[in-house]
Design brief:
This protein is an alpha+beta fold. It is built from 15 helices and 48 strands. Strands 14, 20, 21, 25, 26, 27, 28, 31, 32, 33 and 34 form an eleven-stranded mixed beta sheet that branches. The structure holds beta-D-glucopyranose.
């Protein structure tokens, strides 16, 4: 009896000691238990969960081991490190080896000196850290049909396994896209692999754990390849074979047997090849699949491949092969048909209710040789007929030939579509909704943000923004997913990047893409219009587009505290400044081609000059200054003292040149458009004394357009931010709630489920804008999402605590909203800001994660009117008041949940 009481008491004691401080959510390079990391110094992060308030980490201890027991710490033992860093702690243990499993754990101490228990064990594996680790050879089919739009070649290799296998990892990449199977089991759940990068210098490989598919005895690996971005049509004018004419495969299966011995199965001349059922597969044009040509069981050992051909080995360099460090494209939502329509033209059409990106999977029963064709469209026209003219040259269709034995199920392999509607032809029998489902495909980014308010139209706008991001974050940030474009347009990406960091974890996504930007940047420093660059060397250097080189690294740093991306991109950022400097005269960058404020408001038949045309060189000068400013900020973070000085003096000169060239002595800008004033104010181009007046000119301009915006791709992202900064939040809300064209809500009123490329993609008379450029899934104008999170709900990061280590909560009420809620999953944990108004009282509930602090701006007539959980803040020990600013009382709080209430003015 005595013994069990003692045992119970000791467990109770341990629990109370460690009870309240836990270390969870261990990640390496921002991924949970990643396979095949290519970095020798991965960054480790964790979260602290606790039920106490005001918790800050004061120290951590990490152990990394090659054995399953991290306490061995044979790779790294830090001991107790006095630091509050819990995000992106760089590994500094012994040199990492290739294809090795590393196990790790961490514990922390808090600001009361209390230690946590050790975290659960976690792990990562390394990839092939040296090109020489690749024992495999590049193989190609050598088949006559191996050309663009040709049959997708099959590759297979059988091998014997005589011993018990402990682990089997497949390292694989391709020229073109690959889909692999081991013993009939598909490898992994990623699609369109290896993804799209600047293949010439950066070709990703992926690593898969296939231990459960490998068995003793006969085994087979089978891989089919598709054109993809490697040789498929990209951009226009029959642009194809951009990276090469022949698709190829490089794969290596590493077996570790239970007895510790190893064996590697590699691609080489022993592999065999043949044609298969995928007759054609193209990113733009879709897929033709003839089920009659299927080779049943070809990825199993029993299959007889006697009539298959030997492959061709193609010895190309492997220097450009890199580990995959961004989220792969996977399947996500499934949409069932909401309606089956027969259009006035008699077309059979299915409506999935959401403009999405992915493909359709369908079931069919019919005769051998029957052909089912599926076409994809975003909209129906005014009459209700199927409309595909805006897809331009992209055929975006499926042709499936039945093999005619019972129910057949089909989905594509190496293409994707942007659509809400499909038109079906040749389908044997009745169309039934049960036989069709639309499956979304996009980069497997963690969803991080939600925003909701009392206005349903604004909630739909938020929905459309998030669906625009889902549809266009497909390994690269594309401008659109449906027409013969779908390119990594830099301008769109920079405009949307801050909003993107709220909705999803895009840290690794952008880190990868920015490396491609630096890879494709010209030696002159010019940045191509699209990344990866498929438009040629001349297609680059436009203000607002090329500045993605500075703007996105900085936004990623702000959102995630990711110094490494700044380090990675610093040379590229400076090179871009260098290009502008070399193309400037007297610090004025007024040369070359620029897109300007793309798609600014332009009324039809504009006889009295209401089009909001902003001088392109004036715009260029503002982005010249902004990019220099971001390089100065980056140099400050990286401790590059000389550069701080050098660029600060350049910035001064560039702004002076701007003032002389584009601003009248009375403070008017030569282009008096909203975008002109927004960029001048947002980038601090004007001296302090001129700013209020400029903000007034901006508001007058908005009034002169009857409370409508007129901004294009470059002015729109900052419009409401600038209005709020200069005390015109009410005008910002008016623009947000404007329902007639041009506005954010006009497309919502017109039934949009994503963000449109143009403010009037569908005109008020329900006719369409010019089909030559009219996408209904372009995220650039969705950049308003940033203002919803940061200013309406009020969640932002302070610059002195990036990545939400120091949070700023500053909600701006208005627009007749009775509530607005935003949650953001940061690397420290969930931040919440939920406000509501009732009976003149403002109520704000917030969550602040452990190991962070927050500055909370409460709109209140005085601090005396503010209470927290019903008690006046003056009595609280935890809440410090630090000032008042513009109708806000500023409070400083530590981690925890708070419920504030105040009397509004
Ligand atoms: C693209 C845009 C891009 C623009 C630049 C368009 O074709 O769709 O996203 O920003 O060109 O001109």
């Amino acid at each position: 009896m005595k013994k069990s009481i003692l045992l119970f008491l000791s467990i109770l004691l341990i629990q109370t000691c460690f009870a309240q401080l836990k270390v969870t959510d261990l990640t390496v390079e921002n991924q949970i238990t990643p396979l095949g990391l290519g970095t020798r110094q991965p960054r480790l992060s964790w979260m602290i969960t606790t039920d106490k308030k005001n918790v800050l980490q004061t120290a951590y201890e990490i152990q990394v081991s090659t054995t399953k027991d991290p306490s061995k710490g044979d790779a790294w033992k830090t001991g107790k490190i006095m630091s509050d860093q819990s995000v992106y702690v760089t590994y500094q243990g012994s040199e990492l080896k290739s294809s090795t499993h590393y196990f790790w754990r961490v514990r922390v101490w808090d600001n009361t000196g209390k230690a946590s228990a050790w975290s659960e064990r976690s792990w990562w594996t390394t990839g092939l850290l040296n090109p020489s680790d690749w024992k495999a050879q590049w193989i190609e089919s050598g088949l006559p049909s191996d050309s663009v739009l040709g049959v997708c070649p099959l590759f297979r290799k059988s091998f014997e396994v005589k011993k018990v296998v402990n682990s089997a990892r497949l390292y694989i990449t391709s020229h073109g896209l690959y889909e692999a199977s081991v013993n009939g089991q598909r490898v992994g759940d990623a699609y369109l692999t290896p993804g799209w990068t600047s293949y010439k210098t950066r070709l990703q490989y992926q690593v898969y754990d296939v231990t459960s598919s490998v068995k003793q005895g006969g085994n087979t690996i089978g891989v089919v390849l598709g054109d993809g971005w490697y040789r498929g049509h990209l951009a226009w004018e029959d642009n194809k074979n951009i990276y090469g004419k022949k698709v190829g495969l490089l794969a290596q299966l590493q077996l570790v047997y239970a007895d510790g011995t190893k064996e590697t199965i590699v691609t080489n001349g022993d592999w065999k090849t043949s044609t298969g059922p995928i007759i054609l597969s193209s990113i733009y044009h879709g897929e033709n699949y003839d089920a009659q040509l299927e080779k049943t069981g070809w990825t199993n050992s029993a299959f007889n491949d006697a009539d298959w051909k030997p492959v061709k080995v193609n010895e190309v360099s492997k220097e450009n092969i890199i580990a995959s460090d961004s989220p792969l494209i996977t399947k996500h939502e499934i949409f069932k048909p909401i309606k089956i329509i027969t259009t006035p033209k008699g077309e059979k059409v299915i409506d999935f209710g959401q403009n999405l990106v992915g493909w359709v999977q369908f079931k069919v029963k019919g005769k051998k040789g029957d052909v089912v064709a599926i076409h994809h469209a975003e909209v129906l026209d005014k009459e209700g007929n199927f409309y595909t003219t805006n897809l331009r040259a992209a055929k975006a269709e499926i042709h499936y030939t039945l093999k005619g034995d019972g129910e057949e199920t089909y989905e594509p392999h190496f293409t994707f579509f942007g659509f809400r509607y499909i038109k079906i032809e040749g389908y044997p029998g009745e169309l039934s909704a049960d036989n069709f489902k639309a499956i979304t495909l996009y980069s497997n980014m963690k969803p991080t943000g939600t925003f909701e308010c009392s206005n349903t139209l604004v909630n739909q706008l938020q929905h459309n923004i998030q669906w625009g991001q889902r549809g266009n974050f497909l390994d690269v940030p594309t401008d659109c997913p449906q027409r013969d474009e779908r390119l990594g347009w830099t301008g769109d990406a920079q405009a949307f990047s801050r909003t993107a960091t709220f909705n999803f974890d895009v840290s690794n996504f952008f880190e990868k893409w920015l490396k491609d930007l630096a890879a494709d940047q010209l030696s002159s420093g010019s940045v191509p219009f699209v990344i990866p660059n498929v438009l040629g060397e001349k297609a680059g250097g436009s203000a607002g587009w090329a500045d993605a080189a500075t703007i996105i690294p900085w936004n990623v740093y702000l959102a995630y505290g990711d110094k490494k991306t700044l380090e990675n991109q610093y040379a590229s950022m400076k090179a871009w400044i260098g290009f502008m400097q070399n193309n400037s005269t007297n610090d004025l960058w007024n040369k070359g081609f620029h897109f300007g404020d793309w798609l600014f408001y332009r009324p039809f038949d504009d006889n009295d000059g209401r089009s909001a045309v902003t001088d392109k060189y004036m715009i260029a000068q503002t982005f010249f200054a902004h990019s220099i400013d971001l390089v100065i900020k980056t140099a400050t973070v990286l401790g590059e003292k000389d550069d701080i000085e050098k660029y600060s003096s350049l910035l001064k000169k560039v702004k002076e040149a701007y003032l002389k060239e584009y601003v009248t002595p009375n403070g008017r800008l030569i282009s008096s458009t909203q975008t002109a004033y927004v960029l001048a104010l947002n980038f601090d181009m004007l001296p302090e004394g001129m700013r209020k007046q400029a903000a007034d000119y901006l508001v007058q301009n908005i009034k002169s357009y009857d409370n409508h915006l007129t901004t294009g791709f470059l002015g729109t992202p900052y419009l409401c931010e600038v209005l709020t900064r200069f005390g015109y939040t009410d005008v910002a809300y008016q623009l947000l709630l404007q329902e007639s064209y041009p506005s954010w809500l006009y497309p919502v009123k017109m039934g949009a489920t994503t963000i449109w490329e143009r403010w009037d993609g569908i005109k008020p008379d329900s006719t369409f804008q010019t089909p030559g450029m009219n996408s209904f899934n372009h995220y650039a104008y969705g950049a308003i999402g940033d203002w919803l999170y940061r200013d309406v709900a009020g969640i932002d990061t302070e610059k002195d605590g990036v990545g939400y280590k120091h949070i700023r909560i500053q909600p701006h009420v208005g627009g007749g909203f009775s509530f607005a809620n935003a949650d953001l999953q940061t690397f420290y944990g969930k931040v919440s800001s939920h406000w509501k108004i009732d009976n003149g009282n403002f109520n704000l509930a917030i969550d602040v994660p452990a190991n962070t602090v927050a500055s909370v701006y409460i709109p209140a007539s005085s601090s005396g009117s503010i209470s927290e959980s019903g008690k006046p803040i003056s009595v609280s020990k935890e809440i410090k008041q630090s000032g008042e600013d513009n109708g806000f009382v500023i409070l400083q709080v530590g981690s925890g949940h708070y419920e504030f209430s105040s009397k509004l003015k």
